[in-house]
Design brief:
The protein contains three helices and no strands. By secondary structure, it is mainly alpha-helical. The longest helix is centred in the C-terminal third of the chain and has 15 residues.
Length: 70
């Protein structure tokens, strides 16, 4: 997701971008929406939220992290 779109969503949910990075911002948005702050965590392996706005990116980030562990 482009940074500009992510910023729009953050504003919509009254989440301030404190410069902590995309992952932290997405997790804060998830919390503001009443969801688990699980973006790019190991929870993706058991994720049952197919409609999550960040699912594809989350899966990609977790795969990258898994590859770095090898």
């Amino acid at each position: 997701m482009k940074k500009s779109r992510l910023s729009e969503i953050a504003k919509q949910y009254l989440v301030f971008d404190d410069g902590g990075g995309e992952t932290q911002l997405i997790r804060r948005i998830q919390q503001a929406k009443g969801e688990r702050a699980c973006f790019a965590t190991s929870e993706v392996k058991t994720c049952n939220q197919p409609d999550c706005w960040w699912r594809e990116e989350c899966l990609r980030k977790q795969a990258e992290a898994d590859n770095q562990d090898v």
